Amino acid sequence: MNHQTPYAIWKKLLFFPAIAIGIALFVLLIKTSEGAQQLPHREPVQTVRVIEVPEIDVIPRALAYGNVQPGTVWEAIAEVSGKVVERHAQLKKGAILKGGEQLLRIDPTDYELAKAQADANLQTIQAQLNELKVKESNTRVSLKIEQQVLKVARKELNRLRKLLRRNAVSQNSADQQERTMLTQNQQVQSLQNNLNLIPTQRQLLNAQRKSAEIQLESAKLNIKRTLIILPFDGRIAEVNVEKKQFAQQGQVLVIADSIDIAEVDAQIAIQRFRHLLQHSSEGNAKVDLNNLPKRFGLSSTVRLQAGDFKVEWPARFVRASDAVDPQTRTIGIVVAVDNPYRQAIPGIRPPLIKNMFVEVELRGKARQASLIIPRSALHQQQVYLVNQDNRLEKRLVEIAFFQTDFVVIKNGLKKGEQLIVSDLIPAIEGMLLKPVNDSAMLESLLNAAQGKGNIK
Q1: Are residues 99 and 236 in the same domain?
Q2: For 431-445, how does the pLDDT look when each residue is reduced to its tens digit (9 = 90+)?
């Protein structure tokens, strides 16, 4: 007979509860699994940021870059030779001088002597003309007298010939009177010849007088040319002569830049420039390049940026270049800033100085009722929309033109449609979405379209 210890008996008794617990857990798992299979399937929802596609008047903008140049560059070229006897005390590179100030003076002595000589020649010729006038008057009087004497001599000869036929006088008397008449006739002819020559003599003297007058005016002009006067308010760019140096005719003595106008010759991409000009109510009318600002409403701003330092000047479009750069495929445009030095504020706004590299912003006429979207919302000619069922719709669009932060849509969108502006990865057509309005993005987009903010 086997005798079991109390410990063995308890060990057997504990086996049965463990089996019972396992069976209970198995049944519970089966029931739980059946309950889970009976729950309905829930589709995942992706939250996205959206804006309603706005319709707004868009101001097209474009950037160009170039160097500042003075509106006028004046070169003082010596028109006469001579020693420099006077020089402006402030005639130095970089100095700003007022228009009308004398910069240099070349020794005028030689030209003053030439003027005196020409003046003396002119007075001599004028005296000869006066003498010729008196001579003409006297000759005419003498001719008139001699003609009367000739008339009397001819009558006397006729009378003697009549008497000779009646043998009342000798042949010798008649011959003597005939010689007297011929001599008188020769005297009359001589006076007449002198009168005939007077117009030619007067013409010669008049020509000599004209030549003397020209020499006199030339001498006066040369005296004026000895003075080098600054024609406008300007900044001295170069000085090539010192006092007491000899200046050769044709030598560049001084170079000065105007300060009333600064021009920027900038380069702009053809495509961007075309977008500025595209809007016109005149259809295919011929374009006058000189009338671009008025016809297309072009305005411009010159901007200097150096780190955090930024200064702007209002400018005006002046002209476009006559050719396209074949290397960069850009076109040159010129804008002008009026009174760039008067606008200067020490420490705040510097003047526009020659060769300063600046940025030029051009603006065209506003494109009315344009549909715009953020540039980041364009995915290879497609946009992502939230349709009426809150599902993703991919749609192809036609682009009018790009701006820095936005795109103007030509076809493919309607005002008020919900455009997805957040990154959507993966983007599966028809996926369920939860749209959330992004008012900050919309405000930024509208500001950019209205010409606010920076442009690149």
Answers
A1: yes
A2: 999 999 999 999 999
Residue 2: strand, helix, or coil: coil
Q: What is the pLDDT of residue 416?
A: 92
Q: Is residue 30 part of a domain?
A: no
Backbone angles phi, psi at 179, to 5 degrees: -65, -35
Question: Per DSSP, what are the bridge partners of residue 76?
Answer: 254
How many domains does the structure of the chain reveal? 4
Is the domain of 115 the same as that of 221?
yes
Distance in angstroms (rounded) separating the CA atoms of residues 215 and 280: 60
Average pLDDT across the chain, whole number: 86
Query: What would the DSSP string read from start to end of 361-428?
Result: EEE---EEEEEEEEGGG-BTTEEEEE-TTSBEEEEE-EEEEE-SSEEEEEES--TT-EEE-S--SS--
Are both 97 and 128 inside the same structural domain?
no
| Nearest CA-CA partner of 180 in 142, 150, 141, 144 | 150
pTM exceeding the 0.85 threshold for the entire prediction: no
Say if CB 30 and CB 400 are below 8 A apart.
Answer: no
Phi then psi for residue 289, to 5 deg, are -60, -25
